[in-house]
Structure formats: structure tokens, C-alpha cells
Structures
1.
Amino acid sequence: MSHVRTVLGDIPGAELGVCDAHDHLFLRSPRLPGQELDDLSAARAELAAFRAAGGAAVVQWTPYGMGRRAADLPALSRTTGVRLVCATGLHRAAHYDAESLARLRGGRLAALFVSELTEGIGTTGVRAGLIKVAGGFHALDAHARWTMTAAAEAHHATGAPVAVHLEQGTGALDVLDLLCGELGVPGERVVLGHLNRAPDPVVHRQAAMSGCWLAFDGPSLAHHATDWRMPEAVRALAEAGFGDRLLLGGDTVTAGARSVDGGPGMPYLLRRVRTRLTEAVGADLVDRMLTEHPARAFAADWPPAQE
Ligand SMILES: [Zn+2]
């Protein structure tokens, strides 16, 4: 039976509840100096605010080497009552220093992903529940091909879903050609993120035809120019018959974007996005985007634990 792998253990998807399918509690990158998400009490307060708004689960897409704070996640989940799923995987090369990348290139990336999914992250015992990777701007560079090849291998070994950051929302079809076409990952095991950042309805439909999940996440200051077109993009997909492929997330990536620091943060998804989308596609579909869809997208038939 399929289960969602949370930081407190595997659960049937139906127990996930109202879920923010793409967000970050902790994140550190040389690309975002001074804006790190690394404050434990702010993360706890943000989760409590999300819980108070009706939220029950958050999928954290922060991958390997970006300050995930995996050891802190079980206690955060227990104290706030919000279920948490965390990621293995690797982001774009720009988010790492040269030394770390050289070390990773000398090892077996797929083995690292598999071990974080099945044994745990470092010595924490916390197992990842998804593999996060990233495409490039309208193309796939060598780093993207390397990480996606490892992600596909780890997927085939574990059944884990593969979640993809699309750079500025672009490159969806290149990612699908590689992951699903060349590397044999079934479309329904792939989640594409940031589609709101490149709201081309034709590309969205072509991507949806692969059977993949389309995640609309935000808002973000950097992507304000396109974020507001999200309700129309979601409606176009629903009208084309792809309503059952859609996910929603907040994608908080900087400290200032947290609701407890004065930003929209995680509660915004339930406070404003839900009502605005209800206007576009109706309450029933929006409810399913927040519950049933993440339950299916992030559930997997995990291999039995090794003794
Ligand atoms: Zn993200």
C-alpha cells in the first residue's frame, strides 16, 4: 500500500489533510545572503499560524546541502501538529559552493538520495519523502542532467516522487523529455513546480499530458509579474480536463516572506489563494488540490526496510 513518508513515519495519504505541497521551513543559499530561513522559533510560529488557518501538512522541498535542519523537523511536527515531509535531492549548481559540488561529483549521487530516502538524513534517522531536483532556464545544463539521472535512479530504487524546480517556470517539456522520456520515470511520479512563473497555457497543457503533477506555488516578490495570473492558468488546465493533476504551495524562501515576519507566508495559501481559486474553479476542485492530490502525488510504495 502507498504511503506518504513524513518525518514522523509513513502514513496513508488520506491522513495527510490540508497540505501545502511546496514550501520551505529552512533554506540557506549563497544566492540569498542575509535572507536565510534558519530560525527554529520562527519556523515553529509559521507552522502554528498555518495550523491555525486550517493547515495540516507541509511538504518541504529544501534538498541536500541547503540547511534543511532535518534533525529539528520531528519535534517541530510534534509540537505544532503539522505533518512534515522533507526532501533529498540537489538544487541548481548556483546554490552550492564549488568545494561541496566537487565532493558530490566524486561520489555516487543516486546512492546518497536512496540512503536519505530509506535510512535517513545523516545520523538523524529522519527519512526524506521526495527527491527534489532543478531544471535550467529554458534548457538543461550538465548539472541538471547529472542530478536528474541520479534522481531517476533513486526513484526506480525506491518509488519516491521526483519534484522539480523549474527555473523561472521554464523548461517543463525538456525536464519531462529527460525524466520520463529518456530515464523512464512515470509521469505521475513527477511534480513540476513554479508553473505560475511562466503562465503559457499551451505549455502547461502539453506538460499535463505526460500525466505529471503541476504545482502552482507562491506568491513571491521576485515573481510578482506572473504570480497574479495563477487563477487563470489553473482554470485553463481544469477546463482542458487536467484539474486532477494540480497542486498548490506557498514556496516561502526568505525570512521576510514568512507570515510571522510580516510576509504572506504559509497561511496565505488558505487565507487568500484558496478563496481566490474558488472563484476561478469552484470549492470542490480547490479542496481536492489541497488534500486528495498531494495525498496521491507524494505517496509511494516504499521498499521494505533493510535489517
Ligand atoms: Zn521551493
2.
Amino acid sequence: MAVRMFRIAMAGIALGLLLGACETEELAGGPGHAQKPPAPPAGGSTGSQSGFNFKTSGDAKFDAWRKTFAGKADASGRRDSSIHAVLDGLTPIEETVQVASFDNQAEFVKPIWDYAKSAVSPTRISNGQAKLADNRAIFDGIEASYATPREIVAAIWGMESSYGAFIGDVDAPRAIASQAAVGRRKDFNEGELLAIMQLIENGSATRAQFAKASWAGAVGQTQFMPTTFLAHGRDFDKDGKKDLWTDAGDALASAANYLTASGWKKDQPWAVETKIPEGFDYSLGDGRKLTVAAWKAAGLTPATAPEFANSDALQAELFLPAGSYGPAFLLFDNFGVIKRYNNADSYALAVGLLADRLAGRPDLSRPWPTDIVMLTQNQAKELQTGLNKLGYAAGNVDGVIGRGTRGALQKFQRDRGLVADGFPTQDMLIKVSAAAA
Ligand SMILES: [Ca+2]
């Protein structure tokens, strides 16, 4: 599960190649990753003289970090008992294992449709429909309390844990401490450990429950990071516990609460598939937001839905995940709310498409262009180098095709009378390379 979740997040990294927003992509799945790390604890104690002693882990660097961090936790007001509960007996996960869990080594850019297609597999749709039926009372209660519709909450449940089937078996304190000790997102990860201590202190959860987590330390059926759990966790059945692991109601209400707090707009879509007319100026799909009325005036019509939205005044962005070769979407603000859960366009698209199918909406009107051969990382660098040489300002030559590269490619295409969709095909690489030679 954990690995699967990271792969989804990795899709975001890879997709940055296609879809941009790479600057803000996060390495881990689960909610809260888009949040800023918490402020350092007051008091400024380094903790290096803290009186906390732990049995050695066998790793001097880890032991030194743990002693220092225990002092910080103490200075921030955490109890000795919870500091020991979280940090006693920990041994670090080997760095090579951590790196293998986090880093994307893929040679080819994985296309977004690989994620979109697996998200809406027949099994995942039918399982989701069964879960919605089996948990009708819970979903009724959630919709009565929160703005987020049941199908979106159910889709997140399906994406994060296959509807509760896979919640991870990594010890969250160990996973998070291992990263902090080697300096990987240290402030963020230390904040997550402090949150685990607070959750134990306030009775929301036990230390033992945190032994079941993802490689990032995300827990439960909706894969909450501890700080998100602390801020947005809910006790749906009012039994005094926030059991995100075994109580679907608590987990789903927490997810609905988090999405609502992140700004979910009731009765607005996340996106609507759009038809693109002949001769359309694809360069409008450059991230700009226009009103639905303006998009209609530019020739867009809904592909399968009766309307784009209940108001022509809503702002939307044209999203071309497959350029001119596949389905296109008008994205509404709720798309960005899904990204608060996991800051990757691929993830938000997958959740939205699954939710649509769970709601009984039709499949996409256009197939994904699965026959397109994606650029390798090196080819993506060649493309960027060529665009820069031609004066199109693709930005850093990093093999990551974000908004800058796509925008540069759109300008190149427009100047040559090509369809300006910014989509980096092999053919476009040939054209750019030839022009730059
Ligand atoms: Ca509960």
C-alpha cells in the first residue's frame, strides 16, 4: 500500500513533466504534505543537553538526532511519557531502503493516463459502489455535516487504501524519525513526530496504532499524516477515539472534514470533460483561468455532461493532460482542493475520475492516447535545451517538463503554425531539435 501510494505521488513528479506545478510536488502521499512544516518549538532549546536517554540504536547519527529532538519536544511542552513512547526502541530504516521508497528512478516519464486508467478499473469502481451502499448511513451523516460529496470521499478512500484494505504496516515514528535523522525534510518530519505525541497525549490514538503506517508515516484508511490527523481528525461515532485505522466512519469523516476545511465548494464540480472544436487555440490551455461563459464563447462544449457548471460566472482552467491527443477538462476550484490531499495533478485527476464513475456518470468521451511513446528524462532535457537555444525560455534543463517548458513549447508551436498544445511528443522533440541545430 505504502509503495503504491508513493507511486501515485511519484506520478505527480513524473507528471510535472507534462502538467507542471512541479515546483510544489511533494515526495509523499497522504494529506498534509502540501502544508508548511510547523514553526520550530518555542524556547529555542537545542536539546543537546537534554536529560533524555535512550538505549542505543546502533547508529550514532540517529542516536544524536534523537537525543536532541527529545529535548526540543520537551521544550515544546510534550510529556516525558509520550516522548519516550514515541522514541524508545527506535532503530533507523536504512537510508538505501528509504531512498528506494521515495525516489523515482523511472527512465521514462509515466504518462498520466496510466494513473487515470488504474484509478477507474472496473474492480475499483464496483468495490466503491458496494462500499457506498454498505456504508450508506455513514455517508449520509458525512454529507449532512460536510461540504464534500460522498463519491469524492469514497474515491479518496479507494485511492488511499483500496477502501480500507491496505493501510500500511510501517511504524510511523520509525519511518518519520529515520527521515528526520538524516536531514530529509527535517522540520516537517519533526513536526509530524510532535503531532504523534500530542495525539497520544490527548487520547485520540495509541502508540500501538501508529505502528501501522505508510513509508511516509501516513496512517489509517484515508492515510493522514499526523499533523493533518491532529488538525482535522474526527470522532464520527463519538466513542472518544479517532480511530482512522479500523473505523471507516472516523476515517471518512476526517477526510471529508479536511477537504471541507481546505475549501471544498459544495455543488461545484471538480472538473468537466470538454469537447474541443476544430481550429481551437490550444495555447489557451496554459493555466489561465477564465469564466465558463468565456470558455463557451471560445467554442468549448461539455463532452458528456448537460452543463459545465450551475453558473457561467465560475472560473475554470483548461487542462490538457494529453495535449490535443486525448480528453480535455475544465478544472474548477475543487480540483485544487483534492490536491491539498496529495499535491499532484495525476492524483487529483484519478480521484475525480473515480468519483465521477462512483456517482454513475459516463466514462470519458475520448480515449487516452496510450500509443504515444513518452520522452525519456534525457529527451526531455534535449527538448528544454533546444527550446532555450531558440529563445523560448523553457527554464532549467532538468528533464522535468513543468509549466515553463510546456509554455515554451506552446510558443514554439504557435510560431510555426502547429497545434499549440504544449504536449512533448517525440515528433515535437524532433522538430525542436531540428530548429535548434
Ligand atoms: Ca470514533
